[in-house]
UniProtKB/TrEMBL annotation:
Residues 39-317 form the NADP-dependent oxidoreductase domain. This is Aldo/keto reductase. PANTHER family: D-THREO-ALDOSE 1-DEHYDROGENASE, NADP-DEPENDENT OXIDOREDUCTASE DOMAIN-CONTAINING PROTEIN.
Length: 336
């Protein structure tokens, strides 16, 4: 796979580049996650050392395939530590990669899959200040983008001037600032975020949002953000596994047949097809793979070679679920 080694965050206002694939560590940094079949992916070992070894193997494969964008978060178990250790152990220059992390959730599962609560959300200033220091220790010298993790209207973070001032201070010191979105109100939250300025300067440089064939509703808002100069990063392009062969939902059979027919035309896997749809968004800079194994990563990487066309694009108009229904289903996915 050949990808440009430019930073996808550096595009100037109005420029459009082909989107690149990045690697997210949500499923690599902790033993439990909500992706379908995650338990199968970690069945060969869930100790910290086993997870670290698996993460390093996937990171190595991504690096050699040309992936240069890596995304993690404070709540991804040891995701930050794994990534930081891998970057240091491989002697990868900081200017050769783009590294993003997030603050606002605290990992609370204590390396258990059956924990009552896996993470706790808190967008307050003390959490930002504490997690910033933790991130700096884990990713020393590598962090490019620091994001509010799942900003929502309800969390109050978009109205917290003290948080905004602190983020602006970090931005002035050289770290780009972004936010990630989740839920059926992604577009409204993004519209609110675009209006936040400190001393006449827009606070946010990037936005990461859920966009996939089942839930494309935030697309127009992301296109607006792109026009205004934000780097757009797409996550959950596989809908936590629902757009892969692992989805056995009875209600999904019709959609699966549509996907399989299109995949056969491109001689592609379902996961690659779903990622190709995200890569085809002209306003996207990065599309994240959430691969938990080397095999999944290799399959995901083939998405870049799929020639997405008008016939494939027509699928989006008929394939989407109602946003509320999509997010309700996502909310019911089990940690495994």
């Amino acid at each position: 796979m050949s990808q440009p080694i430019r930073s996808p965050l550096s595009a100037s206002l109005g420029e459009t580049h082909p989107a690149v694939l990045g690697l997210g560590l949500a499923a690599l940094g902790r033993p439990g996650y909500i992706n379908l079949g995650h338990g199968e992916d970690t069945a060969t070992g869930r100790s910290i050392e086993a997870m670290r070894e698996r993460a390093f193997a996937v990171l190595d494969a991504a690096w050699y395939a040309g992936v240069r964008y890596f995304d993690t978060a404070r709540s991804y178990g040891r995701g930050e530590a794994f990534l930081g250790d891998w970057l240091q152990s491989r002697s990868i220059p900081a200017d050769a990669v783009t590294v993003a992390s997030k603050w606002g959730y605290t990992y609370t599962a204590d390396w258990r899959i059956d924990a009552e609560q896996h993470e706790v959300k808190d967008h307050s200033l003390p959490v930002l200040q504490r997690q910033w220091q933790e991130t700096q220790r884990n990713l020393d010298g590598y962090l490019d983008l620091y994001q509010i993790h799942s900003a929502t209207l309800e969390s109050g973070v978009l109205d917290d001037s003290a948080v905004h001032v602190e983020l602006a201070r970090l931005k002035t010191a050289g770290t780009r600032i972004g936010l990630t979105l989740s839920g059926p109100q992604q577009g409204w939250v993004l519209e609110r975020a675009l209006a936040i300025q400190i001393d006449g300067v827009r606070l946010f440089d990037a936005v990461q949002a859920t966009w996939n064939l089942l839930e494309p509703s935030v697309g127009p808002a992301l296109e607006t953000a792109h026009r205004e100069g934000l780097a757009v990063i797409l996550k959950e392009a596989l809908a936590n596994g629902r757009l892969t062969e692992r989805n056995q939902e009875t209600a999904f059979r019709g959609r699966r047949q549509q996907l399989e027919t299109l995949a056969q035309r491109f001689n592609a896997s379902l996961d690659a097809l779903a990622l190709a749809a995200a890569l085809a968004r002209p306003w996207a800079a990065v599309v994240l793979s959430g691969a938990a194994t080397e095999a999944q990563l290799q399959s995901n990487l083939t998405a870049a070679a799929i020639p997405w066309d008008h016939e494939a694009e027509a699928l989006i108009e008929t394939f989407a679920e109602a946003p509320d229904a999509y997010w309700q289903t996502r909310g019911q996915l089990a940690w495994n």
